[in-house]
Amino acid sequence: MIPVPGGVWIWIATGHTDMRRGMHGLALQVQQGLHRDPHAGDLYIFRGQRGDLVKILWHDALGKSLYAKRLERGRFVWPAAVDGVVAISASQMACMLEGIDWRHPQATWRPTAMGSE
């Protein structure tokens, strides 16, 4: 899990991204394609066309970081929009990185009574 400090925005770059891009190429995409400042401290999440790989670009006070995660099975749930960005919360990002549908997370089973009968 990425330790996201309070006040940091998390943005999903909608559409598909060329996953051959590295840190500088993704920062350039944030600046030119999304018209945002890649050095502002926000997290930007990019997904490849196959949907099983995401890259997260983050610039903190010290420098840029690039995180990558590939799912062994399944695909990351992604917004249907083809252009722009979508803001999500840190808990939604955590769900997404675990392969859970962050748009409609399902509650786990809850007991109906205390103790066993």
TrEMBL record:
InterPro entries membership: Transposase_IS66_Orf2
Highest taxon of source: Bacteria
Pfam families in the record: TnpB_IS66
Name under which the protein is recorded: Transposase
Taxonomic lineage: Bacteria, Pseudomonadati, Pseudomonadota, Alphaproteobacteria, Sphingomonadales
